[in-house]
């Protein structure tokens, strides 16, 4: 395997970093998240037209760039450095792969081109705060563990003469307040024969009520979605829709690799800003960064970030390792962001300081996609490390 980046990948990263350096500084991020959409629409269109960012991993036949999911992860490392608020995660990482995997030929040809062009944004709505469970990041995604139960809770779907109708509420949906298309997980078949399927709900559908929620990390805007007897379209065919659970799990593995790269980019930038600060800040007549204790702390952070980067790059090549890479990257981001606040001293503890943007991202991502210990536990279980049929080593065998 050749682990070196191609010239095209290097050029994409360089161009994206230059655009974000000009258009996505801390002040611009704070201004963008306070808009109604929660992101800079003009910048999103520029990234879509100039780089084809939302269509990087979409096939060329549907108007995408046709690159591998690993290329999307490399791009998201750069968006993570800038903490870019955008519909990229919800649209390109979560929704587009599900449309590709489960949609009919007509649905793919009708939805993927506008998604790839950035003209349409999408969001995945699963009941309750259960996104990590639905994507099989913290356990097997059996519907009973996250979909709200067949008798009550979650979102219910019923078949009528005119099509499908949905009713229920999803309180936390990434970009759910602004997405033009919702992919909603809903129960069908009543309690005894309950089954979870995915449905398409268009913006402006009668009975669809959405509002933006207050979140810890404003760069990850979330909305509450209420479905009051809303007309919906089944994702897939009426007679032979594939089980969406394997598709959700596959999407989760790829999403974990992308999120790991994004977290590594954020951690790397937080560390770089901290190193720059301690070189300039003086205490007792010398730069803070010249003290041996500070050097040791920064060196430990550097090693942790580089280890997380290696894991994220490997997961971009092999998404089966995505959960473990995500755990390592989230832990590196949380540690680096916390140390950034500490090493910035008194100014770092003020809530308005830029270091808190990274700390909030670390905390919010672990709430959405973790926690870290459950990501690792599921990866260990998946690898068979805790197979109950295995014979535990006795003290004598361990000594040998």
Automatic annotation (TrEMBL):
<keyword id="KW-0560">Oxidoreductase</keyword>
<dbReference type="InterPro" id="IPR009100">
    <property type="entry name" value="AcylCoA_DH/oxidase_NM_dom_sf"/>
</dbReference>
<keyword id="KW-0285">Flavoprotein</keyword>
<dbReference type="InterPro" id="IPR046373">
    <property type="entry name" value="Acyl-CoA_Oxase/DH_mid-dom_sf"/>
</dbReference>
<keyword id="KW-0274">FAD</keyword>
<dbReference type="InterPro" id="IPR009075">
    <property type="entry name" value="AcylCo_DH/oxidase_C"/>
</dbReference>
<protein>
    <submittedName>
        <fullName>Acyl-CoA/acyl-ACP dehydrogenase</fullName>
    </submittedName>
</protein>
<comment type="similarity">
    <text>Belongs to the acyl-CoA dehydrogenase family.</text>
</comment>
<dbReference type="InterPro" id="IPR013786">
    <property type="entry name" value="AcylCoA_DH/ox_N"/>
</dbReference>
<dbReference type="InterPro" id="IPR036250">
    <property type="entry name" value="AcylCo_DH-like_C"/>
</dbReference>
<dbReference type="Pfam" id="PF00441">
    <property type="entry name" value="Acyl-CoA_dh_1"/>
</dbReference>
<dbReference type="InterPro" id="IPR037069">
    <property type="entry name" value="AcylCoA_DH/ox_N_sf"/>
</dbReference>
<feature type="domain" description="Acyl-CoA dehydrogenase/oxidase N-terminal">
    <location>
        <begin position="6"/>
        <end position="119"/>
    </location>
</feature>
<dbReference type="Pfam" id="PF02771">
    <property type="entry name" value="Acyl-CoA_dh_N"/>
</dbReference>
<feature type="domain" description="Acyl-CoA dehydrogenase/oxidase C-terminal">
    <location>
        <begin position="257"/>
        <end position="377"/>
    </location>
</feature>
